Amino acid sequence: MVGPWIFAGFLNWTVNARSVLPLIPAAGILMFRRLESIPSLFAPRRSAAALAVGLAISALLSFWITSSDVAWANSQREAANLLYQKTRSERGGVFLAGHWGFQYYMQAAGFTLGDEENSNFREGDLVVIPENNTELIKRLAQFRFVAQQNLELLRGNLAATMASTLDAGFHSSYWGPLPFAFGKVPLGIYHIGRLAPLERQDTATHQGNPD
Fold it and tell me: 3-state DSSP: the chain helix, strand, coil percent, rounded to 5?
């Protein structure tokens, strides 16, 4: 138990439920041993019924949450496929922002990961920015993002593992303190736009305000 606790709390780059999962079997064994020391809780008939009900509820909850996480992953794959169909005839550069599964599927389709400092952006390049992601392109020195259209996809079934509006951050606490949450799951939104030169006013503001 100490090993996963040290890794999850002090060594990993972010707090997430995945890093805590190895702790659960050991913690469960210790909790059950403690409960066994209370004889009244484990009468033969009552213990069997309680165990069956508890396992059934846990199984239903686990499958529900897992299906929500799978829906989010599948929506990113679907988004990558749709974006490929929309942009495969582009003559200029097509860049993506963000990481996670979206980056994996987009790069597998031949898209280039955009970087604010190292990418060779040009006027007219197409950029895809997902809302529910991290390490997004926020501001470029010479260009501004001109939105053209949004791609919106369903990504859950009244439960979410990664949704900042519900404070659910299973894979990273950057989204919120909860491993999962229930409620109206926001759509997966992907902003599609082109890079245009900064206007004079924008340039002056950018040069005078380094933030």
Answer: 45, 20, 35
Which residue in 155, 157, 151 sits closest to 183, CA to CA?
A: 157
Domain limits of the chain? 71-208
Q: What is the Cα Rg of the chain in Å? A: 23
Helix extents (H) in the chain: 2-6, 17-20, 23-36, 44-87, 100-108, 200-208
Quick check: 112 and 95 in contact, CB under 8 A?
Answer: yes
49-108 pLDDT per residue, tens: 777 888 899 999 999 999 999 999 999 999 999 999 988 888 888 999 988 889 999 999
Q: Is the pTM of this model over 0.85?
A: no
Place of tokens 């138990």: 1
